Amino acid sequence: MTTFDDRERAFETKFARDEEMQFRITARRNRLLGEWAAAQMGLTAAETDAYAKAVVQADFEEAGDEDVVRKLVGDLTAAGVEVDEATVRKALADRTVEARRQLIESQP
Fold first, then answer.
1. Which pLDDT score, from 0 to 100, does residue 104 have?
2. In the chain, what's the furthest Cα-to-Cα distance?
3. pLDDT for 41-77, tens place per residue?
4. Minimal CA–CA distance to 91: which of 14, 29, 43?
5. HEC string of the chain?
6. pLDDT of 3-55, one tens digit each?
7. What's the distance, CA 94 to chain centroid?
8. How far does Cα 59 stand from its chain's mean position?
9. What is the dihedral of CA 80, 81, 83, 88, to 10 degrees?
10. Domains of the chain with bracketed CATH
11. 13-27 burial, b if ≥16 CB within 10 A, otherwise e?
12. 76 near 88, Cβ under 8 Å?
């Protein structure tokens, strides 16, 4: 049973590591997305930092990306920026790729 137990532990460790990496990618993506939206709205550097943190926090409201998309579309529209859901989803996809690249490059 030792070999089986070792394999089981290895799979559990890999699963935990993959889940942690996915969480970090999503958090980084949301921060980048918040910075993108802040630039669209013309916010200052301090406002941009605060807004990016708010976008990261918004993702904890419900599972999936709908809460983030809803927040960004609402905030951008309220700020007078003409944007649709498709544009926000495209920005979300682009920032996902960028976040993954940044985290992979930062790995030792």
1. 87
2. 64
3. 999 999 999 999 999 998 887 888 899 999 999 999 9
4. 29
5. CHHHHHHHHHHHHHHHHHHHHHHHHHHHHHHHHHHHHHHHHCCCHHHHHHHHHHHHHHCCCCCCCHHHHHHHHHHHHHCCCCCCHHHHHHHHHHHHHHHHHHHHHHCC
6. 888 888 898 999 999 899 999 999 999 999 999 999 999 999 999 999 999 99
7. 11
8. 8
9. -120
10. 2-106 (1.10.790.20)
11. eeeeeeeeeeeebbb
12. yes
| Six token digits for residue 67 | 């809460």
Task: Look at the chain and count its residues.
Answer: 108
